[in-house]
Specification:
Elements (H helix, E strand, L loop, with lengths): L4 H6 L7 E2 L2 E2 L1 E2 L10 H14 L9 H21 L7 E4 L2 H16 L5 E5 L8 H10 L2 E5 L9 H7 L4 E7 L11 H9 L5 E4 L11 H4 L3 E5 L10 E5 L1 H6 L10 E4 L4 E3 L13 H17 L1 H19 L5 E3 L9 E6 L4 H9 L3 E2 L1 E3 L4 H7 L4 E5 L6 H17 L3
Parallel strand pairs: 3-15, 5-6, 5-7, 7-8, 8-9
Antiparallel strand pairs: 1-2, 4-10, 9-10, 11-12, 13-14, 14-17, 16-17
């Protein structure tokens, strides 16, 4: 079956925008994806016809909003193949989810001298919460190294596992390099020593089918805005037994069963972790995004994006002075690169003048930049709606930039 690229592009109204009188070429998808009309329509319809606060009202609008909200939870459960909707906790994003685990599971289970293992390619949101926890608890943060291709060194990772290890927290797909880690092996090795594993799936989930039961991960976190959904919403998946044993993250409305001035008791899963009025419209928009993705198929999307990455890599290797940062064998649709003597911020600015949106900077992965001894990289990242023609525009822009700088 032919991949319906023209239909898909027509579903994203922002792709018709002109930037500096040039057609938009949006290649900043690793930072955030654009939204299909179906998601936009879901927000408009909610606010126009169904909106009210959820879980608390018996009137018609509250019931409608609650039904839509909880239907989105069921969609997420099915999308990642969780065992129960009780395992799906709505949060503000992947960062919020990691912090939730650190401040609940971590505080209850990490003690002085214990160790937490992360990798050398983590996003700041999977570094800083664990640093803060380790500082508070007197625990030790261990970092599994990688090679120059951007691949995790598995013998060194395995050697770090020991009786003191109480948690492994690993990125599924690197936002700075595109590396797809061998998470099945990581989980198997950790579980052999009864060590739970959290996967940061913020970058992976838009690009591949995720089955948390098959992975057997203990926690999986992701953000909505990278999954073609609105900002301000994300998901924490956790195995039910773990979530039930964890204390609440925040106190307030909706996460309680009873409240007196002497004592409060807490709601069951997942509401125990969802204090206050949630991001109602954003959660419903996440459900609409999942419906949209399912209409295309994650396998078809993955195949299309793999073709884009292969094409972009082939083209990039033909440009003198361009160095690709991150050349793992297993890699998602991210092309991070540097140009000889041209700062990435200049690359980003000059490409913007041609209507090309890429990211330039450390990508919230400063230790990765330190490893490669660069201040920053330019990063083009691909999504379901990108085309080889857009990659041609990118490569032409890079060549023009090199000529402009006299190289």
């Amino acid at each position: 079956m032919t991949y319906p690229i023209e239909k898909i592009r027509a579903d994203f109204p922002i792709l018709n925008e002109k930037i500096r009188n040039k057609p938009l070429v949006y290649l900043d998808n690793a930072a955030s994806c654009q939204k299909p009309q179906a998601v936009i329509d879901s927000l408009v319809h909610l606010y126009s016809h169904d909106y009210a606060n959820v879980h608390r009202g018996v009137h018609t609008l509250s019931v409608r909003s609650t039904d839509l909200f909880e239907a989105a939870r069921e969609k997420v459960k099915t999308f990642i193949n969780a065992q129960s909707e009780k395992e799906i906790v709505f949060v503000r994003g992947a960062t919020d989810a990691v912090n939730l685990v650190a401040q609940t599971y971590g505080k209850a289970n990490i003690h002085t001298g214990d160790e937490i293992i992360i990798t050398a390619m983590e996003h700041h949101s999977n570094i800083v919460p664990w640093q803060m926890l380790c500082e508070e608890k007197g625990a030790i943060l261990k970092v599994a190294p990688m090679n120059l291709e951007g691949e995790l060194l598995m013998p060194e990772f395995e050697a770090l596992l020991n009786a003191k290890t109480k948690l492994v927290s690993v990125v599924h797909m690197s936002n700075a390099l595109g590396t797809i880690n061998p998470v099945e092996i990581i989980i198997e090795l950790a579980h052999a020593q009864n060590i739970p594993v959290l996967l940061d799936g913020a970058q992976a989930i838009p690009h591949m089918a995720i089955d948390v039961q098959a992975l057997d991960c203990d926690f999986y976190v992701f953000s909505g805005h990278k999954l073609y959904a609105p900002t301000g919403v994300g998901v924490l998946y956790g195995k039910q037994a773990l979530l039930e044993a964890m204390p609440p993250y925040q106190g307030g409305g909706d996460m309680i069963r009873t409240v007196t001035f002497e004592k409060s008791t807490y709601a069951g899963l997942p509401h125990k972790f969802e204090a206050g009025t949630p991001s109602i419209a954003e959660v419903i928009g996440l459900g609409a995004a999942i419906d949209y993705l399912n209409s295309i198929g994650m396998e078809a999307i993955a195949t299309h994006e793999a073709e884009l990455l292969a094409y972009a890599t082939e083209q990039a290797l033909q440009i003198d002075g361009l160095k690709i940062i991150g050349e793992a064998k297993e890699k998602g649709g991210i092309l991070s690169f540097t140009l000889h003597k041209i700062h990435p911020h200049d690359i980003g600015t000059m490409l913007d003048s041609l209507g090309i949106a890429i990211r330039a900077g450390h990508h919230c992965a400063m230790p990765v930049m330190d490893f490669y001894k660069v201040p920053a990289t330019a990063r083009a990242s691909f999504a379901m709606y990108n085309t080889k023609a857009e990659i041609d525009v990118l490569m032409s822009g890079i060549r023009n930039l090199i000529a402009m700088f006299g190289q």
